[in-house]
Amino acid sequence: MRLHILGPAFGCPSIDAQCNAAVALVKQEASKQGKKWELVCAVDNFEDLPFLEDEERLYHGFSSIARHLRDEQLPAEYAATEAFIESNGRTLLDVSLYVSYENYAAKTRPSFSYILPWYSNYFIPPERRAAARRRTVHLGITGIDMDDVHESVLDQPENMSAAERRFDEETKSRARTLLGRRHTVKSMLRSSAAAGAFKLKNLADNFYEPLVDLLGGKKYLTSDTELSRVDCLAYGYLSLLLYPKVPQAWAAEIMRKEYPSLVQYIDRVRDEVQLQVRDEVAQNMLRDTRKDDTILPWISVVRPAMLRQLTSCGHALLRQTPLAPQSSPMVAEDKSHARSTIHDLLPHAASLTIGTLFLGGCLLYRQGIWPQGEQVHFFGKKRLADYGAAGSALAVLSGFSSQVNSREPRPAQQELPGQAIVDVEVVQ
Predict the structure, then answer these.
(1) pLDDT tens for residues 291-333?
(2) Rounded to whole angstroms, how far apart are CA atoms 25 and 31?
(3) Is residue 289 part of a domain?
(4) Are residues 251 and 272 in the same domain?
(5) What domain range includes position 129?
(6) For position 125, what pLDDT does the model report?
(7) Domain check: are 207 and 233 in the same one?
(8) Is 156 helix (H, G, I), strand (E, B) or coil?
(9) CB distance 287 to 298 below 8 Å
(10) Cα(335)–Cα(330) distance, rounded to whole angstroms?
(11) Distance separating alpha carbons of residues 240 and 8, to the nearest angstrom
């Protein structure tokens, strides 16, 4: 078996929650069944991560991998728990790692630079952040890093006129200059860490509290003896909320202070399945030819061919244009809907067309078929000056003769068809 995932980060096997859950599930099932398996840090084909290769067949997504490895009917309550974890856990991860610009710029974006090829770093992290912002737009969270994000709403009523607003702003600025800036309760609540924790406290409680109630006094979520696929999925999301050392660690702080049993549960799953990844392995994922890691069976990363790199760049550029039918499947809001045939073929067709036109133009230029250094377009009839130095001399003479002839009455001449009479005045 060979599992393809997005690379490691924050001490976890992957920076993606679904990939984390897939690693935990595959590692546990491989040890039970005595199968040999390999772990691959994907450098392309990001569309359907994670996916498992087993017996020349591919299984995309955590649910498909779980159904393949555990051929059993999932009870309804377990299916509901998985849906709850995916929905609420993804929202918290979106806000913590992507919507918060301070966390994104300080930790999330640099972590991608270790596990992605250089060209993918220009597309994948911004796409994931844009998708996270779209998924959380209904929460009214656009930027939790601004200290005065609600100042206009709290201090200025809607019926305040423009003059009153200017007077109010000038009064505040003068008062701050004279009295200095004091730390009030309102200003402390507007600090970046406090504002994020205050706004998302209820959201975190709605995710953590049901899991603690489900855990109860048991060792795992569903039983007291065996790790289930629900536990693997819960670990995939909760580990990325607990372990990353981000500047605004409100999600981890709430979990440690108010839900210590949940922290112990995550640590227990990680230690039992042995899922911890050293920082050196993550930082050298694309550099080393061999991964000296005894916990997870990493294999050497195979660099994609140049054509594959160009195709990936073409797909990413196409997704930024209005021609793209939908977002990248790796960052799509809903992965349950199957992509249609035209959605699959349109990026390939566009990339092939662009590549063909580019190669054709290069070939024409190299073969000399395309004109080089010549005047291609002529507008109107040619003048004598267009024929070099001799033409310029003739143009001067014709202009001089036309001036002489203009002083005498010009006899009627019979104009030949197609002949143009041009009067040129030469200014000395």
Answers:
(1) 555 588 988 766 666 666 667 666 666 666 655 555 444 444 4
(2) 10
(3) no
(4) yes
(5) 2-144+190-283
(6) 92
(7) yes
(8) coil
(9) no
(10) 8
(11) 11
